[in-house]
Design brief:
The protein starts with 17 loop residues before the first strand and ends in a 21-residue tail after the last helix. It has helices at residues 39-52, 72-85, 146-149, 157-164, 172-184, 196-207, 231-240, 256-266, 288-302, 309-316, 325-331; strands at residues 18-20, 56-59, 90-93, 128-132, 136-137, 167-168, 188-193, 216-220, 246-250, 269-272. Strands 1-2-3-4-7-8-9-10 form an eight-stranded parallel beta barrel, surrounded by eight helices. A two-stranded antiparallel sheet has the order 5-6. The protein has one domain: Alpha-Beta Barrel (TIM Barrel). It has eleven helices and ten strands.
Length: 352
């Protein structure tokens, strides 16, 4: 992204889109006071975050025993209820969901099948599904402290080791098929990226015409195979993202507020919620709604406006698709692909 002399003036920045992740799939009941359990509580969490100022909802579903749901029927039910309860929110399902079979004979459908692809079949369809690019470690506890985990289930050695050793499988076999299915279902992919290598892979997908739509992504700074918290890495990632992309900053625990303060000042967007963070100050808990409210206050202090739900959908370009690689490149503000035989750096074509 290019910064002009006036790019830090809030009146020249996009209105702030606040992404809320209030379903904390890694936590168990008791780890946080605001973890939803019943379907009514799932819906109320969305309503509360929306009323506080969030316009994008990152969705997971929990069963009554407290564990993350693998049932598509649960996601279908929640999506239907959310469409009625928060019609103006961008509804985004977390793309790590691996569904399990339901009903007699269901096992056959899951044989040798990446069930994450079934996210494209959720009904009603979400606006977005998050997608990882390139297989990587996802050791979410690597940069968490003992204070971060105090009193939570992840402090138990067996849970800690499980999260320490997590891996996100996201090779070409997965993401090429997944992007195709999401497009066929009219669902926008929301890229979860952590490194420059992943960003470059996405650019290659755009230049090859595999992804022909808006580029909406999160910079995921949670450590352990993903980006860390060094501000220079954050700034460099922002600099390398195309001007026409939509970028949200995602961090973990007590780094969420300072990382997001930088994001708000620079004109990009933010994510908060108990999936990422449980704390305000050391030893002081903070709910998802309180985290949304904190972002609203920081934005107000800097003079940056908060996007409404319809404005967030417009910023995210929900429902837009482009004809081919050339149109996508043009809409994202990228320099064109190399013309065969053309030497030197490519320039944007002059408009007649």
């Amino acid at each position: 992204m290019h910064f002009h002399d006036d790019s830090l003036f809030p009146e020249n920045q996009e209105k702030l889109v606040i992404q809320a992740a209030p379903y904390g799939p890694e936590w168990l009941p008791g780890d946080a006071d605001d973890l939803p359990l019943t379907m009514d509580e799932h819906v109320q969490a969305a309503v509360d975050c929306y009323n506080a100022g969030a316009t994008v909802l990152h969705i997971h579903v929990r069963e009554l025993d407290g564990k993350g749901s693998k049932r598509m029927s649960m996601f279908n039910e929640l999506m239907g209820r959310l469409r009625e309860a928060v019609p103006d929110m961008v509804l985004q399902i977390g793309g790590s969901i691996s569904f399990a079979p339901e009903g007699e004979g269901g096992d056959a459908k899951w044989l040798s099948y990446d069930t994450r692809h079934l996210l494209a079949d959720v009904t009603p369809a979400p606006d977005q599904v998050t997608i990882a690019i390139n297989t990587s470690q996802m050791n979410i506890v690597e940069i968490m402290t003992d204070d971060d985990l105090e009193g939570t289930s992840i402090a138990k050695p067996e849970y800690y080791r499980a999260y320490r050793d997590m891996v996100v499988e996201a090779g070409p076999d997965f993401y090429l098929e997944h992007l195709k299915r999401l497009k066929e279902s009219g669902i926008q992919p929301h890229f979860q990226l952590a490194t420059m290598a992943q960003l470059e892979t996405v650019e290659r997908l755009v230049r090859a015409g595999v992804h022909t739509g808006p580029l909406v992504l999160n910079y995921v700074a949670i450590g352990g195979g993903f980006a860390g918290r060094h501000p220079s890495d954050l700034i460099e990632f922002i600099r390398r993202v195309p001007d026409g992309a939509v970028l949200t900053i995602e961090s973990s625990m007590r780094a969420v507020a300072p990382m997001n303060a930088i994001a708000i000042a620079l004109g990009v967007h933010v994510r908060v919620g108990n999936e990422d963070n449980l704390w305000r100050r050391k030893g002081e808990r903070m709910s998802s709604v309180e985290q949304v409210e904190q972002m609203v206050r920081i934005a107000d202090t800097l003079g940056r406006d908060i996007a409404t739900g319809p404005e967030a959908k417009e910023i995210y370009k929900i429902g837009e698709y482009y004809a081919d690689a050339d149109e996508t490149i043009d809409r994202l503000g990228m320099v064109p692909n190399r013309v065969p035989g053309r030497r030197g750096f490519m320039l944007r074509e002059l408009k007649s």
